[in-house]
What we know:
Layout: E1 6-9, E2 12-17, E3 20-21, E4 24-25, E5 28-34, E6 39-43, H1 50-59, E7 61-67, H2 76-82, E8 87-90, H3 94-97, E9 105-106, E10 120-123, E11 133-137, E12 142-145, H4 158-166, H5 177-183, H6 187-198, E13 204-207, H7 217-225
Parallel strand pairs: 6-7, 7-8, 8-9, 12-13
Antiparallel strand pairs: 1-2, 2-5, 3-4, 5-6, 10-11, 11-12
Amino acid sequence: xxxxxxxxxxxxxxxxxxxxxxxxxxxxxxxxxxxxxxxxxxxxxxxxxxxxxxxxxxxxxxxxxxxxxxxxxxxxxxxxxxxxxxxxxxxxxxxxxxxxxxxxxxxxxxxxxxxxxxxxxxxxxxxxxxxxxxxxxxxxxxxxxxxxxxxxxxxxxxxxxxxxxxxxxxxxxxxxxxxxxxxxxxxxxxxxxxxxxxxxxxxxxxxxxxxxxxxxxxxxxxxxxxxx
Length: 228
């Protein structure tokens, strides 16, 4: 049986899934948020399967499919074919990278009106190669990162440990060197974005790669941002 959604708190679930690149399993994670209307937001969709569709049906109606940065888009087409009425939202620049997909909206510094008061989002400035949209779910005090912060557990494979060491993220949640040294083009702009993120009242941190930080997340994120 396929892995099932895990409840983090009221109206928010995640699903961890394998994600292979460079011959390594970096792990992936989709986050599902249910709005008061019953609409579901699918953040960074993982590989689709029918069991997952059944779980969505039990939770609500899939209305929004989100690609939160310019790298996390490979499974969009499968979800769009299953939910053709859903709105597809992407990070700035992704529509040029994926001209085969019709995006309904480009996310930035403002959430869609339908999410007002329930989900906030912010485009991190100064890292255009990534253009990551960070999400915040106030009800559960959860902030959601995609590739801006990694958190590999101690039980990672030898290959992942070597990668994490090379990328400066071994043994602690942190911003990868690839972001700090290669993708970052405007440090001051990025720092302003980080200040806005740290102004949110969050405690839990959900990351796509790999382990969720259940508590004390704000201080951990603050220390990670100090590297930039």
